[in-house]
Amino acid sequence: MKSLKMVMVKLMTVFMLIEVITCQFGFGFGADGGLNMNYYLMSCPFVEPVVKNIVNRALDNDPTLAAALIRMHFHDCFIQGCDGSILLDSTKGNTAEKDSPANLSLRGYEVIDDIKDELERRCPGVVSCADILAMAATEAVFYAGGPVYNIPKGRKDGRRSKIEDTRNLPSPTFNASELIRQFGLHGFSAQEMVALSGAHTLGVARCSSFKNRLSQVDPALDSEFAKTLSRTCTSGDNAEQPFDATRNDFDNVYFNALLRRNGVLFSDQDLYTSPRTWNFVNAYAMNEALFFLDFQRAMVKMGLLDIKQGSNGEVRDNCRKIN
Ligand code: HEM
Ligand SMILES: *[C@@H]1O[C@H](CO)[C@@H](O)[C@H](O)[C@H]1NC(C)=O
Ligand SMILES: *[C@@H]1O[C@H](CO)[C@@H](O)[C@H](O)[C@H]1NC(C)=O
């Protein structure tokens, strides 16, 4: 009897240990649609440091690429799910997503290529381009001073990239209600949509994205700031206007700009005009920690949009081409 009890106790201990390990290392399945935090633990253990090093090196060289990487991940996820399709080049018979006018000056493809090359040397055929992009965006947020967070991995790469699919992207002329509706189709609440818009704490918009607000000055726009935007546009459609005063810093200055009616895009400023969203803008302007928390949660969620798994996808050899 006594030995049976000992065996039971030992078994219990083993089970508890297994549970601790699975929770600790995120081997659990289900909650993240089958992805997990340590998907590459055995197959490519250095995947995260490799991504981090190459992203850091690229951003040391050009800090404006942080915005580019985050935006690229967003576009990838909103068009046919986070499946690396934004990375595919057009071919003879097919115009890819990236060549749509809505590519809106996406940049940073070389950073993804560099990471892929290094990972192919270390663990060929293992790490998907969709995961690389998701990890690169996470590192970019952290590099720019934003929250540090871990994302589940195991996305497969898609085989489709078509210019017409870019219709799913929100337009800078959308009002808050339209933004709520469109993000709602992807399963986001109004508050999550506002938190995600906070990515505009980084980077720039080109004149072509906001000049419609200037010919007949948008009443939601501060009159001094309208002059600033007009001055930017004297250099042409591609002239760049930073979203806020700290274009390379991930902070809540963007939300404070909205409070002063200094939002660059109509879609930014309307978040503070609309009674459906203005309280979230206010909260994030007052409390950066709250913005960081909501942003990281919403980014993890965005990274799970319509992911492809198993035979639904592949691990591309080259992020620009299907196998
Ligand atoms: C809420 C709806 C959104 C709209 C209407 C929108 C629209 C735009 C537009 C028009 C630009 C400027 C493009 C140009 O003129 O070249 C831009 C830039 C940017 N967007 Fe958004 N966006 C939205 C949401 C997001 C989300 C959810 C993210 C990421 C999580 C994001 C990240 C960025 C970044 C980082 C830039 C700057 C890119 C750079 O400097 O290279 N945006 N966005
Ligand atoms: C974006 O699309 C335009 C055509 O609308 C194309 O000329 C440009 O090369 C594209 N940019 C990228 C980075 O693919
Ligand atoms: C938002 O835009 C839609 C479509 O243009 C329009 O029907 C709606 O009235 C607008 N809402 C507000 C509050 O302006």
TrEMBL record:
Residues noted as binding substrate in the record, renumbered to the chain: P170
Q: Does the keyword Calcium apply?
A: yes
Disulfide pairs here are C44-C123, C77-C82, C129-C319, C207-C233
* Location within or outside the cell: Secreted
Binding positions for heme b per the UniProt entry: H200
Query: Which keywords label this protein?
Result: Calcium, Disulfide bond, Glycoprotein, Heme, Hydrogen peroxide, Iron, Metal-binding, Oxidoreductase, Peroxidase, Secreted, Signal
Q: Which PROSITE patterns match?
A: PEROXIDASE_1, PEROXIDASE_2, PEROXIDASE_4
> Which Pfam families does this UniProt record tie to the protein?
peroxidase (PF00141)
> Superkingdom of this entry's organism?
Eukaryota
> Span of the secretion signal?
1-23
Task: Give the chief site where it resides.
Answer: secreted
Site (Transition state stabilizer) found at R71
Known catalysed reaction(s)?
2 a phenolic donor + H2O2 = 2 a phenolic radical donor + 2 H2O
Instruction: Name the GO terms of the biological process aspect.
Output: hydrogen peroxide catabolic process; response to oxidative stress
- The residues covered by the Plant heme peroxidase family profile domain are 34-323
Question: What residues does Ca(2+) 1 bind to?
Answer: D76, G81, D83, S85, E97
| MF-aspect GO terms | heme binding; lactoperoxidase activity; metal ion binding
| Documented EC number(s) | 1.11.1.7
Cofactor info, note text: Binds 2 calcium ions per subunit.
**Function, in words:** Removal of H(2)O(2), oxidation of toxic reductants, biosynthesis and degradation of lignin, suberization, auxin catabolism, response to environmental stresses such as wounding, pathogen attack and oxidative stress. These functions might be dependent on each isozyme/isoform in each plant tissue.
Name of this chain's protein: Peroxidase
Q: Which organism is it from?
A: Pisum sativum
